[in-house]
């Protein structure tokens, strides 16, 4: 049970407020311990809902009979065939090629950037095609 916060209202109207005074609304109110209301929780028996007694007319839920399993065709969605492997490798090479620092890689391999680009271009007889064909034949 939630309580709504107490509302603090003022009995003064806007005409009673002195606008020329040095009133600062940034002060703190001190509350005494005696002024706080004491709220006790109701006993546990009052909070809990009473349970209805079970009658003999009510049946317990029974389990339904199990259905026989029917064998279906194997799921080909998760099977890796040559075409899927080739497409996967081709996409990985394309993504890596786009995000690779080819200048740095060429200097590590002792080649120029153009030689690396030639080996990664699709639809040519190059390293990329050999890797795709190898994945397809696995």
Descriptive keywords:
single chain, 138 residues, mainly alpha, 36% helix
Rough outline: elongated
* Low-pLDDT segments, ≥5 res: none
**Amount of helix:** 25-40%
Number of strands: 0
Secondary-structure class: mainly alpha
Rg, please? 40 Å
Q: What profile does the largest beta sheet have?
A: none
Mean pLDDT: 75
Helix-strand topology string: HHHHH
DSSP helical segment count: 5
What does this structure look like?
Residues 1-80 are annotated as: Disordered. Residues 55-65 have a biased composition (Polar residues). Residues 1-16 have a biased composition (Low complexity). This protein has 138 residues and is an all-alpha fold. It has a domain at 101-138. The protein has helices spanning 44-47, 82-99, 102-109, 113-120, 127-137. The chain is elongated and about 85 Å long.
Kindly summarize this structure in a few lines.
With 138 residues, the chain is mainly α. The chain has helices at 44-47, 82-99, 102-109, 113-120, 127-137. Helix 2 (82-99) packs antiparallel against helix 5 (127-137) and helix 3 (102-109) packs across helix 4 (113-120).
């Amino acid at each position: 049970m939630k309580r709504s916060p107490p509302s603090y209202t003022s009995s003064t109207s806007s005409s009673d407020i002195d606008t020329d005074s040095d009133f600062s609304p940034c002060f703190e109110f001190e509350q005494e311990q005696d002024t706080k209301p004491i709220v006790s929780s109701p006993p546990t028996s009052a909070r809990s809902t009473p349970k209805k007694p079970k009658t003999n007319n009510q049946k317990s839920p029974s389990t339904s009979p199990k259905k026989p399993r029917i064998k279906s065709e194997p799921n080909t969605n998760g099977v890796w065939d040559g075409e899927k492997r080739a497409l996967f490798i081709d996409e990985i090479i394309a993504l890596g090629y786009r995000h690779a620092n080819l200048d740095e890689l060429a200097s590590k391999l002792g080649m120029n950037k153009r030689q690396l680009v030639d080996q990664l271009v699709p639809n040519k007889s190059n390293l990329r095609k050999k890797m795709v064909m190898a994945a397809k034949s696995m």
